[in-house]
From TrEMBL:
Heme binds at C434. The lineage of its organism: Eukaryota, Metazoa, Ecdysozoa, Arthropoda, Hexapoda. This is Cytochrome P450. Pfam families: p450. The keyword Cytoplasm does not apply. InterPro entries: Cyt_P450, Cyt_P450_E_grp-I, Cyt_P450_sf, Cytochrome_P450_Monoox. Its cofactor is heme. PANTHER family: BIFUNCTIONAL ALBAFLAVENONE MONOOXYGENASE_TERPENE SYNTHASE, CYTOCHROME P450 FAMILY 4. Keywords: Heme, Iron, Metal-binding, Monooxygenase, Oxidoreductase. Belongs to the cytochrome P450 family. GO terms for molecular function: heme binding; iron ion binding; monooxygenase activity; oxidoreductase activity, acting on paired donors, with incorporation or reduction of molecular oxygen.
Length: 495
């Protein structure tokens, strides 16, 4: 009996495989023209990627070293093509033929829902509703809040023991969380400090993203039974409840406020826009609220912490940035958007941090219509999953000298002119680029200005061989460790 069942299973599998090849003949023919590692039946190249999350980037970098700027790999029946040519990356990300997220983003949906980050049919209308809260005019209205919260963190840091090193991220994420709550979430200071389970959520965000990323890249976790046996289902349910409790409180507070008055259009938060649009369900409002909350406060905190850590280790650059602040902004008083534009040395350190710690390590898109790359030599078939390895692009020695070294001078005008401009895409490109690039840039730079006004940053540890943590975005695994000393006689945060 068992032999009959086995024979039937093998025969059914074989027939299905032949049917799949027949129905995907065009895809297979075009895939043959792209180099890549040999693939096993059914599994494809899945075994190659049975590595720890931190090793995933190294694995992709090694495959690019072996096969060049283009290589294919199969994850079961799914064809993936990784592309590291800067000009092709720009062309693909800005093409209307490649306008949907790839299948790995489906693993974000249980917690983040379909929409702006995870993709799906609602991403475009939802993004259109949220976009006005991120434009330059809105960010200008948010500047007083950025200044107030940035000065607060500067005072806190200046009271630290200068002999003791610490992870500055923990202070910075408190600041960015308050800023996001009081701007994009539309909350008052009091409401922002009393949100349901907010501190618990902020402290466990990295753990949540780690679970999501592992599910994306470890194919065995995509098998429901294994996912449950390893306790991942229980963790997922915990995060879903945590996010729902947090966002439900935000939406409830904003509905109550909107019943009394409608805020000014130019400085309206995203939650208010979602509610007033009348086009979104309650669940959609909550999941998109959390998506934009976490991608704004958590990503901004990582980059701001990276900038502060690099300045601590690069005293010459810290002196340049501080002198520039004194000359262009002054030693005190609020920082304006126009003044931030004058801080060219700070901008170079900011960009080098974005290069080193990619906001998105990898981007995946789905080809909806055939499109050619490599000057017409490669045609990407419909259904292909494009992999854009931004982390590797930002460390490609073809464009970056000593890519593992922190060198803000890479972004001096004379060096930028000699480099392919498409080799640096920290906020992605095209209609699905980073929604918060203007917002985050203003927030991060304002934090740095205030911290340098109050403190002198000093190194803790070494920049050599920084270990990275990859969980959707790239972070410093060992923390953003610094020491601080009050500057110019400021004691306990006061002049």
């Amino acid at each position: 009996m068992w032999f009959l069942v086995l024979s039937l299973t093998v025969t059914t599998g074989f027939l299905y495989w032949q049917y799949w090849k027949w129905t995907h003949k065009r895809l297979l023919e075009l895939a043959e023209l792209v180099p890549g590692p040999p693939a096993l039946p059914i599994l494809g190249n899945a075994l190659i990627f049975m590595v720890n999350p931190g090793e995933m980037l190294e694995k992709i970098a090694g495959l690019h070293d072996t096969y060049g700027q283009y290589f294919k790999f199969w994850l079961g029946p799914d064809l993936n093509i990784s592309i590291k040519n800067p000009r092709d990356i720009r062309a693909l990300l800005t093409s209307n033929k490649v306008n949907q997220k790839g299948p790995v983003y489906d693993y974000l949906v249980p917690i983040l829902g379909p929409g702006i980050l995870a993709g799906g049919p609602t991403w475009r209308p939802h993004r259109k509703i949220a976009t006005p809260s991120y434009n330059k005019k809105s960010v200008t209205h948010f500047t007083p809040i950025f200044n107030r919260e940035a000065e607060q963190i500067a005072r806190v840091l200046s009271s630290r023991d200068p002999k003791v090193s610490f992870d500055v991220y923990k202070d910075v994420v408190t600041c960015t969380t308050q800023c996001v709550n009081q701007t994009l979430m539309g909350l008052s200071k009091e409401d922002s400090q009393n949100l349901c389970r907010m501190n618990e959520l902020v402290s466990r965000t990295r753990e949540m993203y780690d679970l999501l990323f592992k599910t994306m890249i470890k194919w065995w976790l995509q098998i429901p039974l294994i996912y449950w046996l390893l306790g991942c289902r229980r963790k997922q349910k915990y995060f879903i409840k945590l996010v729902d409790d947090f966002t439900s409180d935000i939406v409830k507070r904003r509905r109550k406020a909107l019943a009394e008055a409608t805020p000014n259009e130019e400085c309206m938060g995203i939650v208010d826009r979602f509610i007033l649009s009348g086009d979104m369900t309650e669940m959609e409002i909550k999941t998109e609220t959390f998506t934009l909350f976490t991608t704004s406060q958590e990503a901004a905190a990582k980059i701001a912490s990276g900038v502060l850590m690099f300045l601590a280790h690069l005293p010459d650059w810290q002196n340049k940035v501080y002198s520039e602040i004194l000359d262009s902004v002054g030693p005190s008083g609020p920082v304006t958007s126009e003044q931030l534009k004058q801080l060219h040395y700070l901008d170079m350190v900011f960009k080098e941090t974005l290069r080193y710690f990619s906001i998105a390590a990898l981007i995946q898109r789905t080809v909806e219509e055939e499109i050619t790359i490599d000057e017409g030599r490669i045609t990407l078939p419909v259904g292909t999953s494009l992999v854009i390895p931004i982390h590797q692009l930002h460390r490609d020695p073809q464009y970056w000298e000593d890519p593992l070294k922190v060198m803000p001078e890479r972004f001096l005008p004379e060096n930028v002119r000699t480099r392919d401009p498409n080799a640096f895409v920290p906020f992605s490109l095209g209609p699905m680029d980073c929604l918060g690039r203007v917002y985050a840039t203003a927030l991060i730079k304002t934090i740095v200005v205030w911290v340098l006004r109050y403190t002198q940053l000093e190194p803790a540890g070494s920049l050599d061989n920084i270990k990275l943590q990859v969980a959707v975005s790239v972070a410093c695994a060992g923390g953003y460790n610094v020491r601080v000393r009050p500057r110019n006689g400021r004691i306990n945060g006061y002049a």
